[in-house]
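Predict the assembly for these two chains.
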Amino acid sequence: MTLLLSLIIGLLFAAATYCLLRRNLMRVLLGILLLGHAVNLLLLAVSAPLSHLPAILGKDGTPDFPGTADPLPQALVLTAIVIGFGLSVFTLVLARSYFQGRPVDDVRDLGKEEQP
Amino acid sequence: MMDLLIISPILLPLVWVIVCLMAGNKAKSTATLSLVGGIALLAVCTILLYQVERNGTLTLVAGGWQPPFGIVLVADLLSAMMLWISAFVALAVLIYGVNRHDPLAESRRVHVLVHGLMLGVNGSFLTGDLFNLYVWFEVMLISSFILMVRERRKQQLAGGLTYVILNLVASAMFLCGAGLLYGKLGTLNMADMAVKLSTLEDPEFVNTTGALLFVAFAAKAGLFPFHFWLPASYHNAGPAISALFAGLLTKVGVYALLRLFTLVFIPANGFSSTLILYLSMATMLIGVLGAVAQYNVRRLLAFHIISQIGYMTAGLAIGTHLALTAVVFYVIHHIAVKSTLFLVGGVLEMRTGTGDIRKHGNFYQTQPLLAVCFLIPALSLGGIPPLSGFWAKLNLLQAGVSQGEWLFLFMALAVGVLTLFSMIKIWNESFWKPMPEDPSLQPMPAGPGRPYAGMLMLCALTLVLSLGGWFVFDLSERAAADLADPSRYINAVMKGGAP
């Protein structure tokens, strides 16, 4: 399971990097989205090997529910997903308002136009 | 009562976001309310700085979850100083008038966003938890994204997109680093991380994660080669907004570097800072060369930010007590100076309608007060004694000499000369030479707001830092002592939280 998860994460990172290096802005945005998913899966994966105990401990310092996953990475992922969702939507809207009435979306235009 | 004091730099901006949202559509009353919020924030930060200075590091255990399990807010001397200077700059910018050239209906939202930005900035300075730091970074970023592209000019959108995309990638790196670090150490509390890492048999395995976090923070700070978003975007935001960004945003990145790379990723744990030193030197040089080639006033100043960030991280890489003292002083000095320069640049642009300094002229005669407001921070940035930049650079160079970093020494001096050169360039073009004969350039009427009050406030701060610098320097020295000895921070967090 861990192996499969790491393969998927690697694949997502590779795809994200490929997209980020494209000249077409829509692909770059897709790259950002993929990168977000890769990172979220990575966060989940760090808890998979159960290398450390969950924070829910009994009186004697051992876990009350042995075998349960650490809930903290799941909480982190949940937070990251919410933040990532908000930022993605904002970026898409930004890109849309930039490309209104433009035939092509080439990131090289950005460099030319940000100059005063 | 103390708990309330520690959390109030976060709580106040949050309340003011809501207050400004509810203030209705009246621009004037919103601006007044917002100003009151800025004054309240400065007052609270002053009290906090005073308390931290008297009683040492203060901590707040959020929700009663003892460290390392819960989130801890830590106000040590460095945090308190950063909070104070940020609140000061924010107030100066609010007085300058964030709504100077905006349609009235829009201005309400500017105030909401400025307080939202301060919420993120203050949270980043206070938190003692790595993931919480990520969340505050995002709060800060989303406010800055919207402020950056608010007027929706084409240039602004182009620069804004570059800014947004590169910062999102950096945020992903940060999140990766935080997750991997949790996987290795089983904690997110920065003090607890330092403890666990020092007991680990193979701490060098964390180096890769450290590099991920370094890239993330370096991108936020504008370090070479992650700086490209900065000169692309800063000059396109409104004048007041860009001054706020120039003062605060990159310095939050520098603060995060200072915090993590003196506490968790330290040479004792097998993390080498040599690379940071070389990147810093490259940053100094490339930033200033970019500035020398520029003719747009705020774009030129944006390149200077990059160059100066190099000085700060170089001090961090040298890492001795003296070097860290210089860095803390440098950050404070730079926030004050750079915000002033951006405000002046904004006025120049508004009066002439263009940022191109070749088309400016004669401001020395027509706006003598503006010339003074430019000259003080510009000379300070160039490192002319007895202004604050000189003291910051002097100590940094001393630290470099004592560690035998001769290349750094040479580089710092050369970059200092080039900095002065490009400042003189602005002076010559905008202030000194006669106005070019160009019928297309009409002097613009002055907008609403109080531009001089805000700029004079910041100039006065620069003068205080220069002439009464011993007091700030003493504070910086104590903050640096806390940084140089991680066990103090760890003790304050891990034991200070216990009842």
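Chain A touches chain B at residues 20, 25, 28-29, 32, 35-36, 38-39, 42-43, 45-47, 51-53, 55, 72-73, 76, 79-80, 83, 86-87, 90-91, 94-95, 97-98, 109-111, 113-116 (CB under 8 Å). Chain A has one domain: 2-101.
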